[in-house]
Amino acid sequence: MVGGFEVGAVPFNPDGWGPPDATTATTTTTATSTLPLHVPFAPFSRSEKLGRIADWTRNVNNPNATRPNANKTALDSVFDFTADDSFPAAAAAGDDDSTFRLVDGKPPPRPKFGPKWRFNQHRPQLPQRRDEEVEARKREAEKERARRDRLYNLNRSNQNHPRREAAAFKSSVDIQPEWNMLDQIPFSTFSKLSFTVPEPEDLLLCGGLEFYDRSYDRITPKNERRLERFKNRNFFKVTTTDDPVIRRLANEDKATVFATDNILATLMCAPRSVYSWDIVIQRVGNKLFFDKRDGSQLDLLSVHETSHEPLPEAKDDMNSAYALSVEAAYINQNFSQQVLIRDGNKVAFDEPNPFANEGEEVASVAYRYRRWKLDDDMYLVARCEVQSVVEVNKQRSFLTLNALNEFDPKYSGVDWRQKLETQRGAVLATELKNNANKLAKWTAQALVASADLMKLGYVSRVHPRDHYNHVILAVVGYKPRDFASQINLNTSNMWGIVKSIVDLCMKLNEGKYVLVKDPSKPQVRIYEVPADAFENDYVEEPLPEEEQVQPPGEDTENVETNGAANDVEDKQIDAQA
Fold this sequence. Notes:
It is a single chain. This protein is of the alpha+beta class. Helix content is 30%, strand content 20%. The chain has helices at 22-32, 70-78, 88-93, 96-99, 115-119, 132-160, 244-251, 261-268, 321-338, 409-412, 416-419, 424-434, 436-448, 480-486, 491-506, 537-540, 561-576; strands spanning 180-186, 201-210, 225-226, 257-260, 278-284, 287-291, 346-348, 365-375, 378-386, 388-392, 395-406, 453-463, 466-478, 511-517, 523-529. The strands form two sheets. Strands 1-15-14-5-6-4-9-8-2-7 form a ten-stranded mixed β-sheet. A five-stranded mixed β-sheet has the order 3-13-12-11-10, sandwiched between helices. A hairpin with a 2-residue loop joins β10 and β11. It is elongated. Residues 27-32, 89-94, 116-122, 124-129, 157-167 and 537-577 have low confidence and may be disordered.
């Protein structure tokens, strides 16, 4: 027989909503209710989570079960929730110690970075399984920890030294005791200079150009091309006073100041330079000639000059600053000839190459002798170079061809083979940080030559330890003026630097001077040197004789710098073999 469940009497409140007053409710409940007596009331609020009304499964350990009131005590314990956190108000009424319960016994997470993290590594750990997987994880963790420490220390050092410390760099030329220092100019004064020059005029065009092969614009890291070697083509890097065309223009009084585009670009981008360089200045009558020494560092291309990551200092290291400069010059020359259509079709100009002998094969290059007006009675003539030509809409456009080279991704932090297709902007930004001076000089040379387009090639080693074999990963074209704006290269400031140095040198007496970039400070110095200085340059050069880029005693009017760069490259390869 199933028993029924009686709800009991529900009291009626004639005075309003809710239960009646306590006295009335107590009387009514006592008289009419069938609910058990002595049931405790557990107070709660609306925001609290309600628990159970009664827990009949609770195991009550009552040692006084034989006592008369044992059943009443057990019944009360069923409704006793003072130890239950479901009713905070009831739990608060009990003893704090008896209701306290620890939620999480694990220690708080330790920060991964900071001074305490590095010194508290030897803390006790739980025993782990010593298998190959665990050991591999430990090795990876050690490598990651070492990398983070290296970056942390590097960032700490860069806060106080925003530029790489250049105290260990050597001067590009030995300062002799008989030289007289006339002036020193800090780079901070160059940033305030500004000068606007009118459009230049072309006095003469020499040489011949081959057409650019547009198929190289479609190269990607997935279909890379091997960089070829062009040892049979001659490249000429002739200084100003050894140029027969400039000598002829000087005799005809076409200008007052004479230079080359490489020398002008070095002056224009001087505030971005870190390595030491020097320019020889000759004042002859009322004319001024800016020259470079035989075997000067201006013939090479700096690598990672403005990077915070230092390069190895050993000269025999393939990743040293000097070895990378020779490698970059070697890559740049070969790249400028490989991206051409070599079918014998050339664009000839007024005169042939002024430095080539009869019948020898020369590189594709055109020399534009251009004149700028600096003052009412002062003109500047410079020899500017372009390496190729392209025909667009039946109009010929001049191109400059240069190559950036990757030698080891761990120095730059960006792997070109992985990032060039998806993050080309990040690769260019990294190169602008590490090679700001080189890229600015290339842009300045394209601007003074009025090139319509400048092509930048991305050339990488086949293997980081092989500095003789390279591949072309990509070729990107830029308009020089747009690229100059992108790298914050101000044309007015460039010409302001040149104009200030020309005005300073025009105040000097007749003689020979040298402008030297300080190896450790952002400034240049002007020295007065004897008239026969630098005639035996390989003796005074701080580099050893066997490391000279140009062999001594060679005729400067027929300097074949491709042989110099390739010979040095061959020597390094043979030495390592």
